[in-house]
Known about the structure:
The protein is 48% helix and 5% strand. By secondary structure, it is mainly α. The protein folds into 3 domains: 168 residues, no CATH class; 124 residues, no CATH class; 166 residues, no CATH class. Helix 11 packs across helix 12. The structure holds a DNA duplex.
Amino acid sequence: MVRSNPLLGASSTSITPAQDINHTQLMFQLSQLSPEQLQGLITMAAIRGGTHQPPPPVPQEPNTQLQHSMIPEGNRNVLTSGQARGTRFSGFEVDLRLISEAHIVSSVAPPGTSLNAPTSRREPPIDPSLLETSEISLVMAEVKGLRAELEELKRARHSASDDDGDADDENDGRQRKRKRTKRRSLRSEHILSVKTDRLNREQKETRNELHGMVKREMEELTGITKKEALPGPTTPVPAHTDETNSDHRQLMHSKLDRDVTDAKNKAIIMRAAELVFKEQTDGDLRKLKHKDVKFTEADLRSFATAVLRSWKRRFEAENNGEKGRKAKLQAQKNKRHQRQRTLKAARLAVAELYAEIHDGADPSCLLETDWMTEEVSSLDTSDDEEKEAHRQKMVQAARLTEKEIECGTVVLEKIKPLFRSDEVDGIYEELDQLGRKKQKESGKTYARKPRADLGRTRVQPPAVSLYPFMVRESWFEDHIAGTSLEDNFEVLPEDPEGFGSNP
DNA sequence: TCGACTGTCCCTGTACACGT
DNA sequence: ACGTGTACAGGGACAGTCGA
Length: 503
């Protein structure tokens, strides 16, 4: 099979299978090298390709001699044949195939005898002062960039496959090869974008710190802050004045009516990630609490994208009628759910006390958020008159004073789930009493929104499986049996210890 | 009287799952 | 890869209590 190496470009001639170096594989191998090793390879390739200006005579180091001597006769012919085409990097022509071949040669050499020798014992192959001005330094910059990119990919692969981290670097080449063939997803490319429960404490803290930094950077770049209304598509872009250095600069204008992939949005994401990455990888400017947690610029881009999505959502809720309505509904639902959780937490707080009174019967397992009474502040209707009439009923049921009514005191209406049996209702009632008693004994009483019970109930079965003793028989027979709801809930095989049929 | 502390309620932002 | 729906943690606002 003959195919061209994409890295060598269109001008590349056909090459034999032996010379066919997979781009990714090659870059991966190159990434394993130290800067000195790369420097050696580039120098060798340049010399063999005839593009390298010979440096002034310098004492030949043992290792550079070894590098040279390690090239077998056949490969030397290739290197010197001049048939391989070059790739132009910043005005300097260097043959990547030559580099790759030189690398293959070096990679099979015994450790310590070639390029694999420890960095500390190696000297630069040419006078370092020459590198500063020579074209090689430009190539080095290019290669350095590629190395950084490959480091990101390598780290991502490690984090995606397991949590062993750097230990994988010690694995043999066989395992590495297996890993390389693994399919990559975008998620796996981001160290800090893996599921947060797979991160350790330091990584989580660093993640939060970086997220905050990226967000602040984006706020500065766009002028968008939490308190202000989000700018619309036609809002003029104001000039930003930095009072500390009188630097007048134009704010970057986000397009919140467009996707995060929109060119302007993308530019903001890239810029914010770049600025934070530069700052937080700079030894002097780095402010992160944990100095050794690794992260990539891709992580920061991912965070920046999430920030922009969040703004976009807010913008749409403010400006799109249908989406705004949905957002309001969701907020209402969240609020109700939150109250159920509060109720659960309050009952959980006295569960131990309950168990002490009832021979160790622990009611904690009966406290699912989903099983708690709902508390709603208004009727779900768009009819204002109906709403007001319902409020009046609540106000009366809660026995509000005239003053409280005038102040618009909010009353929460209890909506009891109909599935609950008398026994479980009794347990909840006792827990609530214990809670009230506990608070009374502490001598502290706090203002709470008044509650009203107008007798409304919820027929829907809960999503969480029920214990048999919790189910009200009449509810099942009247509302569930024989209906489509019958398949919508599940009853556990037996009651918990201390309750129902398991006293 | 005032500041510190605490409980309650709710908003906001983040994380995750899922569909496209 | 992206948008969307949803759950939930964190923290702010507010109000009541307590002790100096």
